[in-house]
Amino acid sequence: MNKTFIHFIAIGLSALSLQLARPAIAESLPEQTRTRLAATVAEFYERAGPPAVTVLVDRKGETVFEFSIGLADIAEQRAPGSDSVFAIGSITKSFTALATLQLVDAGKVSLDDTVGKWLPDYAGPARDVTVSHLLDHTSGIPNYTEIAPLYPKLERNAWMRDEMVANFAPLPLQFEPGTRWSYTNSGYYLLGLIIERASGLDYYEYLGRNVFAPLGMTRSFSGNDAEIVPGRVRGYRVRNGVTNNASPWHYLVPFSAGSLLSTAKDLARYRRGVFTSPQFSPSLRALVTRTVPLQDGTANLYALGGLIDSEFGGHRKLSHSGEIFGFHSDHAYYPAEDLTIVVLTNRAGLMPSPVSLERKLARILLDVQAPDTLPVAIKPVELERYAGDFDLRPFLFGPERYTFAIENGSLVVKIGGAEAPGLPLVPVGRHRFAMALDDEWTFDFDVPQRGPASGFTMHVADGRLTGYRATH
Asked: Residue 261's closest CA among 319, 324, 313?
């Protein structure tokens, strides 16, 4: 990207026939910082290719950076902004977790309550799973978005709550609750039903009264297409190089696991408000950030509040991303700095992802040095040490099997096994590789002095997952 283009981005002018909104930046940020932030967003826009990107940075309750680029609606040539309404996907989970923990804090629900207690008609093997297991993804309930025969039917089907639950309730648990971790939309769907049963309110009505209204979130919605939502952004997908409208989805399919719509401004109010607003008690905040280790003592980074509790360059970070048909998002809160970063886009499956963009923006704002991502030379014979099948444990995020193979002289990763498409990797350090399309997604291999790698640590979406060489 040349300096002239960076300058045009920084001062908010149109370039390359793009719809570009003027950055709204407080004077507390130096000009150099403004330029770097804006250029970073523009570079992401060019590389990832979403129709639109909206970014908002809040520091101590003040918007210090607000920047949008692209098109919220291609047909209407409508530009996005911080008040544009995006689908936020799994960021919804933090709302569901907060609502659940409000009921726990009020003594209406216990973390040890079971699914069967609150949903007596639930006939599946998860009847004895606890609310705590549902909140931090240690329930073992299969994720309904990963059930191969079911997934294509999630688009366009207007399933009701009981019909959705029937899709996964009879399935056996993946593991004994509390012994492993596996991200599951199914568990958060059940939490929405428990919220309704315990509060006597519709899930969305509960959020409206107890979360949206107290925080002044006037531009957050259920995702119900029957509602008229001014400024709603259209979602897109790209196949074979052609951009089309994303498939429609009925709001009760994702429900409490991913149906909400919101704006960058509202998400900043929400994320910061949970930790600073007098509307929320210290005891509730303690529940939101509580992590429960697995039964064997392994630390769990996923807090009960539907947030990943991690460390970034010496700074504590609470974050969660979201992805749903036609949309991809991320938001993060740095409590010591009282800093919130929101990234919203209107295309799913982006590489680099909004998580990658958030991390790059955070490095600028927090003065965190970027890791070395320049490719390093590696002998072909050395690549053989990393090839083979590896299984994730004890944490799962999607498929368990990761296959590393050598294709055209380079290492690729096949997520889901040898039959999956290969994603190219780039060697960026000793025994370290990064995704060619997203340098924030990295693999550090455990390699003995001689012989093949025994395992790896994968850094993705602010989480840390470990894999071990398969024995079969």
From this structure: 324
Q: Which of 324, 95, 124, 320 is nearest to 215 (CA)?
A: 95
**What are the tens digits of pLDDT across the range 312-363?**
999 999 999 999 999 999 999 999 999 999 999 999 999 999 999 999 999 9
Annotated domain spans of the chain: 89-366, 380-469
89-366 CATH choice from 3.60.20.10, 3.40.710.10, 3.40.50.10490, 1.20.120.1760: 3.40.710.10
CATH 2.40.128.600 fits 380-469, yes or no: yes
Question: How do residues 271-309 score in pLDDT, each as one tens digit?
Answer: 999 999 999 999 999 999 999 999 999 999 999 999 999
Q: How many CB atoms lie within 10 A of CB 461?
A: 22
Look up the pTM and report it. Answer: 0.93
Q: Is 80 exposed, middle or buried (0-12, 13-18, 19+ CB in 10 A)?
A: buried
Question: Cβ distance 195 to 206 under 8 Å?
Answer: yes
Do residues 97 and 288 make contact, with C-beta atoms less than 8 angstroms apart? yes
- Which tokens hold the place of 456? 């790896």
